[in-house]
Amino acid sequence: MPPERYPPDDPREWLNRARSNLARAGAQMPGVYLEDLCFDAQQAAEKAIKAVLIKRKGAFPYVHDLAELLSLVEASGESVPQPVRQAGRLTRFAIAHRYPGVIEPVTPQEHREALAIADGVVRWAEELIRED
Q: Residue 4: left (phi > 0), alpha (psi -120 to 50), or beta?
């Protein structure tokens, strides 16, 4: 059953989307490229960070660079733990890995790492949003 939906300017809706991407990122099945799953991991982290930005600032820029987005979170006065900073490593999955032949295929280890990073970012964002 889908989660309760919220307005698009509500950080809880962005967390819903982040959780959806995270679930897809971990759903390995025949015929699905690990690059596509890593894209979902990147999207989960991006949407979770944007949920925090909505809570802190009410808005965010439409960029995919997770290190840049985390810098904006810090500029808003929110502390970013070191494990969450690892999200910057996922930015590469936002563009180049989505297209054939641009970069080497993702390894199972890279997929596991991307999934773990994204999971940590989503959990961090959930804690911040839950503090309301």
A: beta
Please state whether the predicted TM-score (pTM) of the whole model is above 0.85.
Answer: yes
Segment 46-76, tens digit of pLDDT: 999 999 999 999 889 999 999 999 999 999 9
For residues 120 and 86, the answer to whether their CB atoms sit within 8 Å is yes
Query: 56 lies in which domain range?
Result: 11-130
* Cβ-contact 128, 14 below 8 angstroms: no
Neighbouring CB atoms inside 10 A of 79's CB total 8
CA distance 88 to 62: 16
Residue (of 127, 125, 132) closest to 18 by Cα position: 125
108 assigned to some structural domain: yes
| pLDDT at residue 22, rounded to an integer | 98
20 vs 2: CA distance, rounded Å: 9
Q: Do residues 64 and 31 touch, judged by C-beta distance below 8 A?
A: no
Residue 1 lies in a domain: no
